[in-house]
Amino acid sequence: MALVRYRRDQATDGRDQILLQLTSSAVTPLGQVFATGELSHDRVSRHCLPERRHVVTTEGSLTLRRIAGALFLISALTFATAATILSATFDWPDILREPADVVLTRFASGGPSLVWTWFATAWTYAILVVPILLLPTVLGRRDDVALWVATFAGAISVLLALIGFLRWVFVVPPLARMYQDADDANRAALAAAWLSQHQFGGALLGEHLGQLLAIGWSLTVSIIVIRTRVLPRWLGVIGLIVSVLYLFNQGDILATALPGFPVFDLAGLIGSTAWGLWVAALGITLLFRRSSGQRSVRSPEATTATT
Questions:
Q1: Residue 306 counted as domain residue
Q2: Cα separation of 209 and 216, whole Å?
């Protein structure tokens, strides 16, 4: 095994300088080096500690990567569960295009359990904001401007979707209760109030802007994956396909304001389901596969001190 030996020499300017020599011998314990006065403790630390710092950083990155992967997967699975219950009990999302009389009457009959289902749907989706914000660091691309722009777009999309979902917890319940007890004149006014908040908080913020920004995030991540191979290329290709498919759901949203706008009826169901599965696949990939940019490499200083 090679031994690193140090000794002091007097440089031309009168200061001590350290000369490093490699010899093939058994490694001398550091205690003997200190005893002979060949090298002080602080100088050993300067040469030996970089390797330790490098290992800690690598382990920390791996832990952060697993946290992000787990959160992507947890959010995708829990949101899918809540959305499935919501679909079975409230006919969501088809009921979103029904008139106020149908929606508010059906909502009032759902009782507190329906409100709690909406609450769970909202906050399981909100989990996504954390791994989205962690992703540039996890992928080792903190200097990638495009990825950071997409990251903030993705985080904002989650916030907008959260507003859209939580309307059903804080805004719709009192409207539904008042609608049940109102006469025909007041019901017309309540239906107008329902439509206003539904178009603003739901169609505009939650569906149009929220989905567009989410699609922009997944498109950007997919393109970066394909170009850099920081994750498996198939993940990027599938991400592109499901993002474009999800984009077609905008026709159904725009048709609420522009009657006659072309609508692809299955785009919402297929696109949102495929997008959720892609998010789950992203989480699984981060959990169980190292990225190409995060292999363990010793720093030059550590190599010099331990070769």
A1: no
A2: 10
Q: Cis before residue 99, ω within 30 degrees of 0?
A: no
The tens digit of pLDDT for each residue in 7-24 reads: 444 444 444 444 444 444
Please state the φ and ψ torsions of residue 203, each to the nearest 5 degrees: -65, -45
- Domain with 221, as residue range(s), is 64-288
Q: Averaged over 189-198, what is the pLDDT?
A: 97
Structural domain includes residue 32: no
Which among 177, 233, 168, 244 is positioned nearest to 206, based on CA atoms? 168
What is the distance between the terminal CA atoms of the chain, rounded to a whole angstrom? Answer: 8
The answer to whether 119 touches 169, Cβ cutoff 8 Å, is yes
What are the tens digits of pLDDT across the range 113-171?
Answer: 999 999 999 999 999 999 999 999 999 999 999 999 999 999 999 999 999 999 999 99
Q: In this structure, what token pair is assigned to residue 280?
A: 């789950």
26 is a domain residue: no
Could you give the count of Cα atoms lying within 13 Å of 87 in the half-sphere of its Cβ? 10
Measuring CA to CA, how many Å separate 171 from each of 71, 137, 189, 256?
29, 37, 15, 20
| Residue 136 lies inside a defined structural domain of this protein | yes
- DSSP state letters, 41-96: HHHHHHHHHHHHHHHHHHHHHHHHHHHHHHHHHHHHHHHHHHHHHHHHHH-TTGGG
How many structural domains are present in the chain?
1
Question: In the chain, at which residue ranges do the beta strands (DSSP E only) sit?
Answer: 2-10, 16-24
